[in-house]
Amino acid sequence: MFRNLKAVGRILYGRNSFDQLGDVLDELRIEKDSYILFLVDEYFDGNDFLNRIPVKPQDILKIIDITDEPKTKTVDQIVAEVKSLRTSLPVSVVGIGGGSVMDYAKAIRLMFTNEGSSALYQGLDFIKNKGVHCTLVPTISGTGAEVSMTTVLSGPEKKLGIKGNFTTADQLVMDPELIRTVPDPHRFYTAMDCYIHNIEAFNGHRKTVMGDSLGTESLRLCREIFLGEDSRTPENDEKLMVASFLGGLSLTYSEVGACHAISYGLATVTGIHHGVGNCIVFNQLEEFYPEAVKEFRTMMAKNNIVLPTGVTAGCTSEEIEKMIDVTLTLVFMWAHVSGPEWQKVITRDKLRGLLSKM
Ligand SMILES: [Fe+2]
């Protein structure tokens, strides 16, 4: 089966393009009572940036707590709350923030038009109805959430994306100025999510020329940024934003691999954030990606990044086994990494050994 990809509908790109968001949204405000639901990263709570968001009196703006990875429970709560406040649906759900906020926006827009809990829709192609319009404004780059057809959610039973033809956003605003103040090491960890996407997409059975071509350019940009003299220049912000976009798009034509599979398991138990979790896992994956792990360590050293250690040290054996259970549910990732016979090589023992080093 080939994926019948729906790409992001429209892209507003350029430094300070965020100032045009109001005009873009005004095109959607057709009725007198048309309103927008803005979801804004808590990073901006109390920040002057809030005044730049084109909120009108009828709109709803919610500050989104991103302490934990996006949860199905929170998606359901926000949809129920908005529905209780208004008789109509928003004309756009606008996510302004990092991967978590963008994933919330992508999931919430779908749950306005699909019955029941979002936990029912985790997986591929369970969503049956088109969601309301969705606008994404990344303020940190690397996850590729702005372009991907997945919205990753932690539910009561699993951490798994809602993925399908209706998941992709309708409008993207790519303003490199918005990522200028992201603090390190957060910026580095999130950027490495993009680097790891490219490495994983290349190294596997589901790779394609389309995925490779997009990923090659994304990888080239990552290398320019993090192997160069100073990763924190305005030019590098722009490169990082584009790298994230291309990396996210390349995944649509390939698959993530060992790092994401293990990192999902690690996150389910420890709640560790995706960017840093991936870096901790990737650092132990020489067996899968020997050259890239070396390069990743060079990037860390050049950018003065020291990874957290002992993340699994305090975990009980039950917790470790739960991480392994979750990791092994990601069969499409492992089939990409090791082929259809992956279960012969990806053993619980191997995963236990890797997790114990983290
Ligand atoms: Fe990722």
Summarize the structure.
With 358 residues, the protein is α/β, with parallel strands linked by helices. Helices cover 42% and strands 12% of the residues.
Poorly predicted regions are: none
Shape category = globular
Strand order of the largest sheet: 1-9-6-4-2-3
Integer count of domains: 2
Describe the structure.
The protein has 358 residues and is of the alpha/beta class. The chain has two domains: 10-179, Rossmann fold, CATH 3.40.50; 186-356, Up-down Bundle (Dehydroquinate synthase-like, alpha domain), CATH 1.20.1090. The protein is built from twelve helices and nine strands. The protein has helices at 21-26, 72-85, 99-111, 186-202, 209-226, 234-252, 258-270, 274-282, 290-302, 317-329, 331-338, 348-356, and strands spanning 10-13, 36-41, 60-64, 92-97, 123-124, 134-138, 150-154, 159-163, 171-174. It has a six-stranded parallel sheet, covered by helices on one side. A hairpin with a 4-residue loop joins β7 (150-154) and β8 (159-163). The longest helix has 19 residues, at 234-252. The radius of gyration is 20 Å and the shape is globular. The mean pLDDT is 94. Residues 143, 193, 197, 260, 274 line the site of fe (ii) ion.
